[in-house]
Structure formats: structure tokens, C-alpha cells
Amino acid sequence: MGYIVFALKYRPQKFADVLGQEHIVTVLSNGVNNNRIPHAMLFSGPRGVGKTTTARILAKALNCDNPKQGEPCLECSSCKAIMEGRDMDVIEIDGASNRGIDEIRDLREKAKYATVKGRYKIFIIDEIHMLTKEAFNALLKILEEPPEHVIFIFATTEPFNVIPTILSRCQRFDFKRIPLKKTVEQLEYICSAENIDFDNDGLKLVAQLADGSLRDATSILDQLASTAEKVTYDNVNIMFGRLNDDFFGRFTEYIIERNPKGLIDSLNDVMARGYDLESFVSEFAFYIHKLFLIKNKIETEETEVMSETVKELAIKQTKEFSNESLMQITTELTETSSKLKFTNNKKLLVENELARIAYLIESKDINDIIAMIKNVNIGEIIKRKPLIEEKKEEKISQSTNIMEKLINLLKTKKFFISEALRMSKIRYTKDNYYELEVPRAYIKDLNQKTIDEEIKEQNLDIEIKIFYNNEEKYNKFKTNPFEDNPLINKLLKETDSQIIE
Ligand SMILES: Nc1ncnc2c1ncn2[C@@H]1O[C@H](COP(=O)(O)OP(=O)(O)O)[C@@H](O)[C@H]1O
Ligand SMILES: [Mg+2]
Ligand SMILES: [Zn+2]
Q: Of 5, 281, 327, 330, which sees the most CB atoms within 10 A?
């Protein structure tokens, strides 16, 4: 026997083997069992989810010599004939290629002829929405008074394009997309049966690309089996010429770093490798959307399908963005992707958009920023580094509070130390350890010795290490470090003094 494609080889032959459509096959097998099957049924749903398969199983079950609990026996001559597609009483019509009135007239003729006693004449019309208006009307005539022995099973991916007069005469069955998990299970099953090497991330990706269609999933696997040694995440990406989440993970790092050069360089790299800009942009939008889902702990097939390493990076990255930012980037990218259709200079559009995103996006919700500003008095923590991880940020505001305490303690008695502390910047902190960058102008007031003594005196459980900086902006303090300080100014004025050093 020659090679049979997986989609055919693994086509379910019994109701019980149809995956993911339990709600439908239960009703149908019960119907067969109780002899209550409607004359016209509409199987609607996306492609590759078992509509045709179920129609054939139903045909077998209805005409089986020996049905068991509504299931076909698969062994009698009728079951065999239907399986081999040579049964005269089961007629399959493809609505997409037999759209006309003649075909339906022909069907009407066939419908008239009685079958062997106890058997049904079963018409399976696929893609029913493709029929012409005349054909629909001819069909309607039969449906209005269907002969006792005739059963129609219509299938369509576009039920909204089936005229209402037909719809109203059918019992409708809505087939569902196959859940990712079920698809993976089926792929696993086929792999073991066919001795195909695979890893889990590879199968998950196949399932994701199949987007709920078991036929597509099975066909992809078929192709992979004939081209790749093993079904892996990378091999699937290679076969589809896809950029993977690893790539977008790295790409997103450039956004976090606000590094337009990194973005544009790797965009050029992508283009050099021949990727299409439109799908690049929409896939990137999708990655950012996944960050949103992860950040909000929304589990979907899309997040489920990410490999562990990718997910780890993604989780880290979500901390760098607010929800608003993520939504905004996704929207912008989606818009860009549709704008791309209408421009001659695709590269320019994308480059500019990426640069914009790198500059535009604030890392935090505005409320977070306000809360931070309220908490922070020391240095320029926020202004200088807007993309601070949440954890660090917590620590800084915490440490700021402890610092605040120290500063306040010293305010009355050791004003200059307090002031020097206030002007300093926390460079690094962990637990109760702080590294302070003190403006050099305060070298006399605040040095390692003074601060150590203070900590001891105040009986605080902290360690502070002092560093001096020479930054421009502190230089002015050399002349008058208290220029802006109303208290000092008042003091100077009232005592008619001046700062000498
Ligand atoms: N629900 C399902 N359970 C198991 N296999 C399925 C299912 N749906 C589709 N398949 C696989 O996909 C192939 C095509 O399915 P088919 O019934 O023709 O889909 P549809 O008519 O909905 O487009 C089948 O031969 C089978 O291999
Ligand atoms: Mg079909
Ligand atoms: Zn049978």
C-alpha cells in the first residue's frame, strides 16, 4: 500500500474517536440509537475540525447493518462501502465546485429513487454557502417536503452566508476549534504511532500554528516528518520561515533599553534574511500582547505555548512595562502593520515606528510614578532611570524611608549632615546596606567617619558606604550648597553671615 497522508490515515471512523466535539457526537449517536435523526442538519464551524468526518460517521451509523449504541460497526458491507466511498446511497457534493442549479436538479432526481428497505439516502453537501441562489432555491424545494428516506447533512465554514430559509429548516450543530491541548495530544499520538521524534515545544508550536484545526496540525506534522529529523521548536520555525519568540524577546530588550539603534540594526538583519515586514510587525505585536497576558496572569493557548526559557524572559520583561504601555505598543504595531499595505516605503515606516516606541513608552503607570515621586526625596532616581524594575523600586522607596528617618533624626542637631544626606543619591542598596554618592561639596560634613559615628549614636541597624561624585551639577554647591534652602538663607541673612567654604 502506498503512502497515506496522516490526515486520512488518522481520520476518526467512529463517533467516539472524534476529538473535541463531544457535545455533538453524543447527540448524534443518541439520535441514531433512538431513531431520531432530523432530515436536515447543518454542521458549521472552522475548517479541519471534523465536520466532514462526522457526517461520514453519521452516514455509516444510519445505514449500518449492525450498529452498537449508535456507533457504526465498521465491519458490515454497508460500513465498508461507505468507508471506501463507493456506496450509492451516500452522495457527497462539494458545494464549492458544484454550485449550480443543474447539480441540485440532479440531486433531486437522485433523491426520488427509493433505497433498499431500511436504508437512507444521505446527501452530504460541503461548503453549502457556496451554492448559487438558484441552486439554493432548488434545494429548498426538496427541503420543504423531504422524502422519508432522505437525509441532508450540510457543512459550512460560513453559516452566516447560508440563506435563512435553509437555516430555519436545519438542525444546527456548531463545531468548535480544537483546543490546543487536545491537538498536542493527538499529535503526540500520531508521532508515537509513526515513530516520529519530537519534543513538547515543537508539538505545541505546530498546534499553535494550526490555530484550532486538526487537519492543519496533522498536515504540518506530515510535512515535518518528511523534511526534518525531529519535530522541534526550531525545526518548525525553520520550516515556516518564522521569527520565534526568542528573537522577539531580544528585540523587546532594545525597547526596554530605549535603544533605537539596536532595534533598527536587528530590523535590517530581519529584512536581509528575507522576512516580510508586515508579518514581522504583526508577530511582534503579538509578542507584546503576550507580555500583557502574562503580566495580568491571563492564561491562554498563546501563553501556554511559549517555551520555558522564553517565558522566563517574558516574565522579567513584563515588569518593565505598564499595562497601558503594552496595550499602546500593541495598538501602534497593529496599526502600523495595516498601514504597511498602503505605503511604498515600508522600511521607513517600520523604522520610524520602532524608534517612536523606544522613546514614547513610559515604563510605569502614571500613578506609580506619582507614588514614587512622593516617596523619594533623595537624588534623581526617577528622572535618570525611568525603567526601574518593580523590585528595585520597592527597595528604593523602602530604603528611602529609612534614609528619610535618619535625615529627620539629624535635622535638628546635625543639620549639615542631614542636609548632605538629603543631597546624596543612593547608588546601590541591599537589605540594610547602602552606597551613597555624596556631592563632593559635602566632603567635610559627610564622610565615612561622621556617618559611622552617627549610625552608632542613633543605634541604627544599617551600614552606609560613602562615595563622592564630581558631577557637574553638584559643583554649584561649592559656592553655595544651600542656595535653594530657605532655612539656611534666612539664617545667613539674619546673622549677616556668609558661607566661606
Ligand atoms: N475532531 C476531530 N478529531 C479527530 N481528527 C480530526 C478532527 N477534526 C479533523 N480531524 C482530522 O482532520 C482531517 C480533516 O477533517 P474534516 O472532518 O475533513 O474537517 P472539516 O470537514 O471540519 O474541514 C480528518 O481526516 C482528521 O485527520
Ligand atoms: Mg470538510
Ligand atoms: Zn456497519
A: 281
